[in-house]
Amino acid sequence: MDEELDSSELGTQKYWQEAYIKEIHNYEEHGDTGDVWFGEDSAIRVINWICKLGIDKETAIVDLGCGNGFTLSELAREGFTNLLGIDYCQEAVTLAEKVTQSEFPIIKYKVFDIIKDDVVTLGKFGLIHDKGTYDAISLNPDNPKENRLKYIDQVVEMLDDNGIFVITSCNWTESELLRHFEEKLKLKCVIPTPQFKFGGKVGSVVSSVVFEKNNIVHGE
């Protein structure tokens, strides 16, 4: 069983509210669209993989923890039309709308807490994307394991029967993510990420893992 991560302010809503308030100010004053967590290279790598997946451009896609809307904007640029970004910070949604809505008004945003709110109200999705939200939940000082398990259940509930879940983490390894999700979802593939070698061991700074819905009914 994997140990829980050491808690961090990066796992608190207060941290992100304050961060996005600053980013809104920077955008309004200087046109700075804000940071892309884990860097743009990591995001583009996943976006390119999604584009090569061959799914219909009208597939319902949700970005969990949309931040400034970067991923959704790039998907819209590639022709995807059914895009929703959710974040538990009103400030993030405000920033994303300011940054993306003039160029990509088709992107919808909603303030939504993946742990506390009812995902049934969002509907089903053919593709769910997460870059950092599962990490933040894992870093929260209050009930991280309980909240992680709730998150996994919520993702499964939101996925279409043939849906794809793409998660990028800088706190959990590929093998850890597999252990966390394998009871409810089936591994589809791992998106290659740059590796480093240190002390004779090879590792990655981030892990991007793709799961699909496991429709096996136990007991049959």
Automatic annotation (TrEMBL):
Q: Where is this protein chiefly located? A: cytoplasm
Name the Pfam families for this protein. Methyltransf_31 (PF13847)
Its domain of life? Eukaryota
* EC number(s) reported in the record: 2.1.1.-
Q: Name one GO biological process term.
A: methylation
Keywords recorded for this protein, A-Z:
Cytoplasm, Methyltransferase, S-adenosyl-L-methionine, Transferase
List GO molecular-function terms, semicolon-separated. Answer: protein-lysine N-methyltransferase activity
Residue ranges occupied by any Methyltransferase domain in the UniProt entry: 55-189
Q: Which Gene3D superfamilies match?
A: Vaccinia Virus protein VP39 (3.40.50.150)
Q: Name one GO cellular component term.
A: cytoplasm
Member of which family? Belongs to the class I-like SAM-binding methyltransferase superfamily. EFM4 family.
Can you say what this protein is called? Protein-lysine N-methyltransferase EEDITHA_LOCUS93
Which species does this protein come from?
Euphydryas editha (Edith's checkerspot)
